[in-house]
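Quick one:
INPUT:
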């Protein structure tokens, strides 16, 4: 049975990840006035520090934000095609990568390289699923070969991966600082 402090930490983690998604999901790559989407990192960090039971909540939150962005904020619905359903396996891959990386969540110096490698591999797999499904199921690329599609979209891979890894690193930094603060407070008590 989780202790009250463990439940508090879980609640704070869920709330922080939800707020991060709420603040960033409206614009995929960001701009000078909008933060880039942190959804991949949210699912990875949820897998790393929480349980799978949170996956449906974060998936519904992502869909709800998309609905609000399109319906009320004027964001284009260009990406809402039959391929949109493949965001579920995209996010599941990131959650699985986070779950797999749990052995490194002590965040010791020796854990950082394998943790980064798992996060990067998860993000690459997520990119392949989301972009591959968009090519095959969006209905926009009937006359375009897969090689031509890759050539046109390859430049999206770097920011896609970079933003995911940036937010994962930021999240891990926050967790490390929170752990140190908690340890310092406990040592003074």
């Amino acid at each position: 049975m989780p202790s009250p402090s463990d439940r508090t930490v879980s609640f704070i983690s869920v709330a922080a990840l939800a707020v991060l998604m709420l603040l960033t999901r409206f614009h995929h790559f960001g701009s000078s006035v909008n933060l880039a989407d942190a959804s991949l990192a949210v699912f990875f960090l949820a897998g790393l520090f929480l349980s799978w039971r949170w996956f449906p909540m974060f998936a519904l939150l992502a869909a709800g934000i998309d609905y609000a962005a399109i319906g009320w904020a004027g964001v284009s619905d260009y990406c809402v095609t039959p391929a949109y359903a493949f965001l579920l396996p995209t996010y599941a891959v990131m959650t699985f990568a986070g779950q797999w990386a749990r052995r490194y969540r002590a965040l010791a110096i020796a854990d950082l390289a394998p943790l980064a490698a798992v996060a990067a591999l998860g993000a690459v797999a997520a990119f392949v699923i989301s972009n591959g499904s968009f090519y095959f199921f969006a209905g926009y690329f009937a006359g375009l070969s897969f090689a031509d599609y890759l050539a046109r979209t390859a430049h999206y891979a770097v920011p896609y991966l970079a933003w995911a890894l940036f937010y994962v690193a930021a999240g891990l930094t926050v967790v490390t600082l929170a752990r140190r603060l908690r340890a310092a407070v406990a040592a003074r008590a």
